[in-house]
Design goal:
- The protein is α/β, with parallel strands linked by helices.
- The chain folds into 2 domains: 2-122, no CATH class; 135-202, no CATH class.
- Helix content is 18%, strand content 33%.
- The strands form 2 sheets. Strands 1, 2, 4, 5, 7, 8, 10 and 12 form an 8-stranded parallel beta sheet that branches. A 4-stranded parallel beta sheet has the order 3-6-9-11, with no helix packed on it.
- The longest helix is centred in the C-terminal third of the chain and has 17 residues, at 186-202.
- The chain is elongated.
- The termini are far apart.
């Protein structure tokens, strides 16, 4: 069996397979221009269920740029004969811990598994969680950020002295000259409040 995809091929909860119950398995040749994804039960299988020593598993050749296996399998197994050979040629090969590559035989010799890839990644493939941030709380802490101005930091603040909500429309900074004066003096106000607070703590 030959499977050709010009760009990408995704197999989800389905199979690319050749199966024989009383003979040797058929070969599978998968050629993909960019990315092959076997996802959530996706399988490439060349199994042989024959009962004689010549009933070998089929060979599987996979040749894309990227191969990604997530909860999936590539199988070239046999019952009485030898297991088939599995060859994967890819620029990047990514497989999670729940995926299986098997070229074994019940009573014969196991087949060979060859992975020819520059980048191999084994383990869990998960999306990273993005930490949440309470924007209103951060906006009210401008003075705390100013106190540590000599350190690296990220400060999220409103555009003027009014307590605008993140969901509100933001007015133009050219709305009034008083707003500009308030914004320009915000750092001095923070310094003054810190000096007063330190004086109180000292007493």
């Amino acid at each position: 069996m030959i499977v050709i995809a010009i760009e990408d091929l995704t197999v989800t909860n389905a199979a690319i397979e050749t199966s024989a119950t009383i003979s040797a398995g058929g070969n599978i040749d998968v050629r993909v221009g960019q990315t092959l994804v076997l996802n959530e039960g996706g399988t490439s299988s060349a199994a042989a269920g024959g009962v004689t020593a010549t009933d070998d598993g089929g060979n599987i050749l996979i040749d894309p740029v990227f191969v990604i296996l997530r909860e999936s399998s590539i199988l070239a197994t046999a019952n009485a004969g030898n297991g088939g050979n599995i060859g994967i040629q890819a620029g990047s090969f990514i497989i999670d811990v729940n995926s299986v590559i098997d070229a074994s035989s019940q009573t014969g010799l196991d087949g060979r598994i060859t992975i020819d890839s520059v980048n191999n990644i084994y383990g869990s493939v998960l999306l990273l969680e993005t930490p949440s941030m309470n924007v209103p709380d951060v906006i009210t802490q401008k003075c705390v950020a100013a106190a540590f101005q000599d350190r690296s930091s990220l400060t999220v603040e409103q555009r003027d002295a009014f307590s605008w909500s993140p969901q509100d429309y933001v007015p133009s900074p050219l709305r009034t000259t008083s707003a500009e004066r308030v914004a320009a003096s915000s750092f001095d106000e923070c310094r003054f409040s810190l000096i007063v607070e330190n004086a109180i703590n000292a007493t």
